[in-house]
Amino acid sequence: MQLTSVYFIVFMAFAILGFQCCSSRYRYLFILLCNILFYTGWINDIKSAFSLAAVIIVTWAGALLYHKTRYRFILHVCLAASFLFLVWFKYADFMTAALDKILRYSGHSGPIPLSPMAPIGISFFTFQAAGYLIDVYRGKTMPEKNLFRYAAFVSFFPTITSGPIERSDHLLKQLREVRPRPSFDDVRRGFILFVYGAFVKLVISERLALLVSSVMDYYHFYSGIVCFIAAVCYSVQIYCDFSSYSLMAAGAAKCFGFDIVENFTVPYFSETLQEFWRRWHISLSTWFRDYVYIPLGGNRCSGLRKNINLLITFLVSGLWHGANWTFVFWGFLHGFYQVVGNLTRKGRNKALQLLRVNTECFSYHLFRKLIVFLLVTFAWIFFRFDTITEAFSYIWRIFGHVRLWEIFDGTVYEMGLDYMELAVLFFSLSVLILADVLKYKTRKNIDCLLLEQNILFHCLVVALLITVTMVYGLYGPGFDAREFIYIRF
């Protein structure tokens, strides 16, 4: 059940109505029922839901047992058991391929057949459950005695497939509270977020995906400048795809009166890589910070150890995204960026002072933002391809076959989109940029910004977003939007 499908819209309409009618004491049970209906609507085989149920039961029981006995052994066993599901379903093929290479080098032959189908959202609900277990160990939250309430927290349907990764002291706390019925303002704000997220996904991300696939899948036929444009477009596409799901998830949750963590805060306006990761996929980056980087020692150690901790954290982050060496290299690259930044910070600051560079002017801040964007775009190339060799071949194509005149000779219309489609894309991107600039300046999401305006204005904007999404986002009964990229992780 895609969030962009008509089925989900109908599902949400009945779910909101039922939630309004449900007694406040038992709304978590209604949410759990919605979670089950939504999740089983994603999978072809209901057996895939057993891994979700197993993770829920293991971590719920483990937290209660640890709280009573204070035996760390229970915590370690439950964490290992929950991560075992993730490793089995997500990395079995990866480990099989590595083992097969070792066997071939040692003179043996024959691959080991092992291809389990990973349940939808396994990375997200495993990390959410593991975070809860660690928070109980740290005394940050009390163990939840009600299994059904805890299950509603882990399997919360707006976030289970692609995040954000919620914390027990935030979402579970809201499920524990006896809250009033969602107000009209809650539903209205949720609707605005959902509509804007659908606009970003269907109108912008899907068009960029067509352009990117046309070039990056057949890059040998294109010049360096076209490949560079496609790489930039992929950076924007992946941002639109990731952030649109978070917007739609936040909107769906808000319609039920729940607030979920903000996952993206205009990351491409960052001036440092550290700031980028404070703005990009915030729930995941803070999860790795709190449960990997800080336990390794964080900043409370020598400079060398701190840099090693950074590299380890980003390598694990890369591996979390997928069982492929390209993801591992992508994570390493971001860790390498951070380490180089730490090692050169004093030298760069001293050079700026010696050259008397004005660090408070617009051009300086714009230059820093551009550098960060280009570094991130370079790393995304490895994220896009299946092998590191292909990624380097694509990079070589960018630098080795430069033909700048192709920007002006009409080649841009041979990148998968015709004149009309490009016009729609440019118009939609201008809306996205405007919304992001306003968010960067005011620190307010589009729902807050619109509701501060006159009712006629914000109704017209929402109506325009719906119309554009319906006309240019849904291409008829045969059109099926691509699934959100993060659903594969």
Descriptive overview:
By secondary structure, the protein is mostly helical. It folds into 2 domains: 6-181, no CATH class; 186-488, no CATH class. 69% of the residues lie in helices and 0% in strands. The protein contains 18 helices and no strands. It has helices spanning 6-21, 27-40, 49-69, 72-105, 122-138, 147-154, 168-176, 184-216, 224-254, 273-279, 282-296, 303-321, 325-354, 362-384, 388-400, 419-442, 446-451, 455-472. The longest helix is centred in the N-terminal third of the chain and has 34 residues, at 72-105.
The main sheet comes to: none
Whole-number mean pLDDT: 87
Amino- and carboxy-terminal Cα gap: 17 Å
Count of helical regions:
18
- Sketch the topology as an H/E string, one letter per element: HHHHHHHHHHHHHHHHHH
Please mark out the parts with pLDDT under 50 across 5 or more consecutive residues, or reply none: 475-479
* Backbone CA Rg: 24 Å
The total count of strands amounts to: 0
Oligomeric state: single chain
Percent strand equals: under 5%
Q: Helix/strand-derived class?
A: mainly alpha
Number of domains: 2
Helical residues, percent? 55-70%
Shape: globular
